[in-house]
Amino acid sequence: MTFEKLREYCLALPGVSEELPFDDVTVVFKVMGKIFALTNLHERPLSLNLKCEPARAIELRDQFEAVQPGYHMNKKHWNTVTVDETISSAKLVEWIDHSYELVAKGLKKADRDALSKLSRR
Fold this sequence. Notes:
Elements: H1 3-12, E1 16-19, E2 26-31, E3 34-40, E4 47-51, H2 54-63, E5 67-69, E6 78-82, H3 89-105, H4 109-119
Antiparallel strand pairs: 1-2, 2-3, 3-4, 4-6, 5-6
């Protein structure tokens, strides 16, 4: 998956925004203002940080060499995924969706309610 495809997919999810809050190369995707994915514009191969349920995070790290504890993130809750030939686009989309859903579940009630209205469109 290319950065352009990753960006297109993330921005198509309800309530998602894209920001550069840290520097000019770290792209952050947020759902209702909360981070669910980060990537570096210039890093090749592409890698991204995704939130993950802790037990699943460990399973993925054991199963895929391209999945490591989250770089500069809470290692219990975040994975860094190197997008290479060992990771299918379908798997990557599944993991992006998982991250998005985890973050969306943790939103304040008012934000969850607003997101649910966006999701119905």
